[in-house]
Amino acid sequence: MHRADLIIGIVLTLFGAVVVRESLVMPRFASIGADPVTAPGLVPGLLGGIIGLLGLLMAVRATLGLRAAASAAPTEASAPEDADDGTEPRYVVESPHAGRNRLATMLVAGLIFAGLAVGRLPFWLATFLFVFVTVALLEFQRYGRGRAVWQRLAVALVIAGGTAWAVIYVFESIFLVRLP
Amino acid sequence: MEGLGYFFNGILGFLDFTSLWDILWATLLGIVVGMLPGLTATLGVALLTTLTFGLPSDEAILILVCMYVGAIYGGSRSAILLNIPGTPANAATALDGNPLARQGEGGKAMGIATAGSVMGSFIGMIMLATIAPLLAEAALRFQSFEFFWLAVFGVVISGRLTALTDPLKGWIAGFLGLLVAMVGQEAIYSYPRFAYGDTNLAGGFGLLPVLVGLFGFAEVLSVMQQPLAAVIKTSADSVIPKVREVLQYWKTIIRSGVVGTLMGLIPGVGEDMGAWASYALARGASKEKEKYGKGSVEGLMAAEAGNNAAVPGAIIPVLTLAVPGSAPAAVLLAAMFIHGIRPGPLIMITNPSFVYEVTAMVFLASAAILLYGLLLTKPLLLVLRVPPSRLMPIILVLCTVGSFAIASRLFDVWVMLGFGVLGFILRMYGFPMAPLILGVVLGPILDSNLRRGLVLSEGSLVPFLTRPISLALWLGIVLTVLLGIPPVQRLLGRIFRRRSRDGTTGASS
Q: What is the complex's ipTM, to 2 decimals?
């Protein structure tokens, strides 16, 4: 965590400095007799400064933590705790990369759907394609080889078709909401 | 007495077919949203805000309040049966609810959670009706100086209390939120800050797309990354609690209701802390401390009464100061503005019946959760069997529609995506979301009131520091910051330990 905190701290410090600089170049409307304390850059500049300082503090703290961790003598690993002591949620046993794969699938599919397809394709079509592809991919990841291909595709087809129909019907017909 | 009249009028006004139907479906939807890990009360209220903005204002706010109350209650189901809180507010519920379920008393645990939630809501509701008018009257004395400090106080205290182990990250999140609110045209000269010639950026980031991103897309990504929860086994015992079993903890219920409401009242702190504070106090005062964490009925009741009492608690500052007590309350505030309701210190002058109408809404939503808790608990558990891999893509579709619907701008969909990814990263590294959201809401208040205050004082900071309420607020901020600094905490700890040791020695000698 110290290493991540150090990087985030440095990023925030630089970000704060950029915000302060951008705030300083904002107009102050002195030509129309504006009071300097009403300048548009005042509050963003203050906020940028505070964020930069807090980021710096975080980076310094992380550096001290890293040094302390490096200088500390390696200690013996503590005895593993009882894994089934009844206090942890019960999870399905799966491969170590399963979570990362699901995350990558959803992130890429989600960005393509909402960032690119929406507005270019009819909304029902974009929704259908996104839900079908995502559910199908996740079904394949979820069941490994345990289920027939047609079953997984059928599940995805039913969910995608149902979602596309329901979204259009519920939003446009019942709640009179405009869709992308 | 006038308030009581408004309250009963409010209830009578909602006793028509449309309102009762709205109460039933919105509360049920809220319970389902709350039950599903990954769907929070904030997201539920945000998505329903976009759905209901074409409805009359009282009907829309009724639906949103029912969703809010229902979701905070619904989260207890998955906390009890899966040990995974449905919403962050139900984390304390899992501590005793899940052990009870493991002992074969899942039904009893859900019944106790229902009783605790309903009674917590009722206590919060009474406090809403009594405190809100008083706070509104006090807030009439607020000027720019006080509103500026209130905004800073909100961000600082929210950052402190939502990131207890690392307040620095809570404060960074809060100030980032304030900065997000700076993008777009400012209020005095209409100068488009950080817009770089882009008309979309000149319009600023809408609160709802930001919220839907932080609590929707970010949550969808988090759920995908987490391991899959095992399929639950429901218990066969009754979900209807014994009256004696509930009433024997009446002191705990009242204490938790009051504490939960007060935690809800603090800007940006909300239901999570309502539950934790109630739980900690109940444990401290309990005669059966040893049962806590192992299936204590009292602990479960304290947590649920605390988080549900925080709902009306969080609505109090929304109505009287236009400052949200929690993230879902921030959406409720935005929804009120969308519907032309102007919450704030003038609410008791311009719209005195509204506070009591909202109280009546909380009452009716609580009655609905009691009904569902007694009748529909077991059928509703089927919802928990839906695998997230089939549900989350649908949630993202709803997030897309929700962020687009208010202003019909594709830019808002991109904002949702951007803040979703940002929120996911920030959360992964321990930054809380509540102060960020509070910052987005409070940003314009801080900005306009600081500059207006400086104009009024002709550039002097003296009124900011010396007016009585301002003084109390900035001293509170300084104290909160100091108590969040580890060396100061250690120093205070050492002083208190030495004093108590001296006291003990003195007493024994």
A: 0.87
Instruction: List chain A residues with CB under 8 Å of B486.
Output: none
For residue A82, give how far its alpha carbon lies from the nearest alpha carbon of chain B (Å): 16
CA–CA dist B402, B42 (Å, integer): 13
pLDDT tens-place string over residues A151-167: 888 989 999 999 999 98
pLDDT by residue for chain A (180 residues), tens only, comes to 788 999 999 999 999 999 999 999 999 888 888 888 889 999 999 999 999 999 999 999 999 988 888 887 555 444 444 444 555 566 666 677 788 999 999 999 999 999 999 989 999 999 999 999 999 998 888 766 667 778 888 989 999 999 999 988 888 777 777 788
A131:B397 CB<8 A: yes
Do the beta carbons of residue B87 and residue B40 sit within 8 Å?
yes
Give the whole-angstrom CA distance, residue A14 versus residue B68: 39
Residue B495 belongs to some domain of the structure: no
Are B54 and A12 a contacting pair at CB < 8 A?
Answer: no
Is there a domain that residue B36 lies in?
yes
Query: What CA–CA distance (Å, rounded) separates B242 from B190?
Result: 61
B316 falls within a domain:
yes
Q: Cβ A40–B50 below 8 Å, yes or no? A: no
| Count of other CB atoms within 10 angstroms of residue B508 | 6
Q: Which pLDDT value is given to residue B468?
A: 92
In sign, the C-alpha dihedral spanning B283, B287, B293, B298 is: negative
Closest residue in A to B223 (Cα) is A103
Both tokens of residue B305?
Answer: 């009464």
User: Cβ contacts (< 8 Å) between A143 and chain B: which residues?
Assistant: none
The Cα–Cα gap between B450 and B460 comes to 11
Give domain limits for chain A.
2-71, 98-174
Q: State how far the Cα of B432 lies from the Cα of B165, in Å rounded to an integer.
A: 11
> Is B449 a member of any domain?
yes
Domain that holds residue B243: 2-466
If one counts the domains in chain B, the total is 1
